[in-house]
Amino acid sequence: MSVGLGNIWRFPFVAYENGGGAFLIPYLCVLIFIGKPLYYMELCLGQFASAGAVKVWQLAPAFKGVGYGQALATWSVVTYYVSLMALTVFYFFASFSSVLPWSECGEGWSTKYCVRSSSNHSLLTFNVSLAKSSSEEYFINEVLRSDPSGLDNGMSAPEWRLSLCLLFSWLLIFLVLVKGVASSGKVAYFTALFPYLVLFILLGRGATLPGAVDGIIYFLKPQWEKLLEVKVWYAALSQSFFSLSVGFGSIIMFASYNDFRHNVYRDATIISYTDTFTSILAGLTIFSILGYLANELGVDVKDVLKGGGSTLAFVSYPDVLSRFTFAPQFFATLFFLMLFTLGIGSATALTGCVITIICDEFPRWKKWLVTLCVCIVGYLMGLVYVTPQGQYVLTLIDYYGGGFLIFILAALEVIAVHWVYGIKRFCLDIEFMLNRKTSYYWKFCWAILIPVVLIVVFFYTVATSEALTHGKYVFGPGAIGFGVALTLFAVSTVPALFLYAYVKRYRKGMGLLESVKDTFRPSDKWGPRDPVLNRNYKDFLAGNNPAVPMDGIDNPASDIEIHRF
């Protein structure tokens, strides 16, 4: 699920907003030292315990609320994620028109500043800085019917066409989920390869357009002064979390289905680098198109788009598709089918994480019924994103529910595993599971670098927070208050469930101090789910004192005898 819609939609937008090439260096650094280690850690947690994002906290019951906080964050993201899929469905069906509707300045939605795809900006009779491509006006004025006043005048009714597309998306998610993780994994063989074919086709076409080189240079050439801007590093960190899906609990959930001896070390390496390759490929594709649009409109690449992330994905890509001389409808259909299949993979993973948590807590409930209820609620909540104000709400939820909140929960997750449970104990768990010792690289990232960076990012963000914007719109205090309340509510699950665990132990007769200590110790249920593996695990621990430092050699040929079961 780590290669998904975020690579095609979110990465190019975040790179565009943060200086193009200036963003790549922080992003690669974050991937190597934060994203990949977190991904590997979550894979190990889920596979070792064969448990979801809540049950895995048997390793430190005081932090069980982290799992619930991640579920709330995941749910916040998935509600708007599916709304993006609804947009791809809309464009998919629009692509069957005899003339792609966004290639012309249509009546009823275009303005006098609309520029058709085939127009030459040198022939315009008005200031070229006011020009807008027909694909941009089609998206904003016809598809979204966006309200330029933002959230200031309240919410309007959902757009009926997008509401139907949203319903279709949730129905398909429901059908995939009721078939289970194993069956959805079979579909992944197609969804994993198909996007690359489409991206290479688009890159080949985009690179041949006039001005494409300027866009690619903007994407690849660093602006060194921007490396000193903390917001660029923050954006890189946020994109890495979103792209790899770390901190949401979904990686833990999927890893829980693995065989206990499965090589997750290999998986973490392959997936993290494949994810980065996909993001860069999408970046090259989109920036070649942006360079062309800048050439057509007579503006700099950095001034091509004025809207948010959805504008980039649903303006630039459709624009270049309309310029295909051979069967543009066919390629447009392929492209939006690709976006939808990527979205299905990510959305089912995120939704499945929430469903797993509910079913783990209420095992008597029928899973198909839980899935149905979750999808219905998701659809009803998602209707807010298909209103004329929907994209503003998306920006708000993305920042507070999918960015800032995830940093807090990820920091607590790393602290709980490596400071409370213990880095040495965790490395022993990995050695028992994979017969592989953990190198100093992983230990340094887990125990020192990641928690320190996340804590610093948290305090810096709070201290230097700026007004949240969507394009030129600045969010008011009411919207900001809602976002902050969402973050506080999700984080409050951690102290609330710690207090519950403490009271539960105290009522059993433990002393005040002992009750606190016990909430931070692994429960009796912690360990491999298989009874035979669990017994051998306890024998393994008895022969390897966690207080003894490991030698840190990352070598599959461990000097400890291989345990066979």
Architecture overview:
The chain crosses the membrane at residues 20-39, 72-94, 160-181, 193-220, 232-255, 276-294, 330-356, 368-387, 399-421, 441-460, 480-503. Na(+) binds at residues 3, 7, 243, 342, 346. Disulfide bonds join 105-114. Keywords: Amino-acid transport, Disulfide bond, Glycoprotein, Ion transport, Membrane, Metal-binding, Sodium, Sodium transport, Symport, Transmembrane, Transmembrane helix, Transport. It is a single chain. The protein has a domain at 5-24 and 68-121 and 129-242 and 266-420 and 468-497. It is 67% helix and 1% strand. The chain is mostly helical and 565 residues long. Helix 4 (134-143) packs across helix 11 (309-321), helix 5 packs across helix 12 and helix 10 crosses helix 11 (309-321). A hairpin with a 2-residue loop joins strand 3 and strand 4 (473-474).
Report the principal-axis shape: globular
DSSP helical segment count = 18
Q: Profile the largest sheet.
A: 2 strands, parallel
What's the helix-strand series? HHHEEHHHHHHHHHHHHEEHHH
| Rg estimate, integer Å | 25 Å
Major β-sheet strand ordering: 1-2
| Quantity of strands, as a count | 4
